[in-house]
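**Sequence with structure:**
===
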Amino acid sequence: MANNHKSIYSALAANLLIALTKFIAGAFTNSSSMISEGIHSTVDTTNQLLLLYGLKRSKKAADESHPFGYGKELYFWSFVVSILIFGLGGALSIYQGISHILEPEVMKDPFWNYIVLVLSLIFEGTSLFIAVKEFNKTRNGIGWWDAIIKSKDPASFLVVFEDGAAVAGLIVVMILMGISHSFQIPELDGLASVIVGLILVFVSFILARESRSLLMGEGIAPETREKIAKLAEKDAAVVRTKNILSTYQSPEEVVLMLIIDFEDHLDTEEITEAIQRIRGHIKNEFPLVRFVIIQPE
């Protein structure tokens, strides 16, 4: 989790530094795409604050009303972030761009826009580098897309997507703004806003998909279930593992239920002892499994 905090704080600092300057530059030069970039940075700043809030809430200790803890708070706030990226980031940028395409306004001298964009690219690029570096530590050699699908910590890849979208948007805006000013085609400035918005919508769908899956109770991977089943079946009291049910309460906490067929000749005390042995072996082998419920068949 410390790594996630590092990437989130770096993204928060970058967005706070550039959001205000984008709005000032956009208003001064009458640039639609710069206003869209300002909206983008403001939404990203809000998103980082919500992620930090979700991380804090997810650490609350279990209580009577939430016996398994508050770990899913992180998944909820990650889903909220994906909705904000879509609504406040993507939709507003597209609306802003279409408005300027339908009613184009000639851009003033874009000099300060370029200064802000270059600085933004440096800040966002640095934040993206940190986020990618931290995410690489969690990949364990598997491919990027597989790592995102298998990750149970949306905070680890959400910042990567946000910063990646920000860098891509900045490059699009710089190119189209330059062409728009050079050839006096003000519609291209609006087109840049639309493209930025579409990038954000695309990112929001990916993040919403992954966050929703975790929020709805995504379980452990099939290969992990197989390892747990074999581990349980090593116990002399077990005939076979009939079923395994699981759900991630947080990136660091799994609730696991096993339905096990025990030997017929065992009495209640022997089955109880076997359950305790199996529970201990599973927790030692898989530290993320905090709760193990074993139901004899």
User: Anything to note?
Assistant: The first helix runs from residue 2 to 29. The two ends are 38 Å apart (CA to CA).
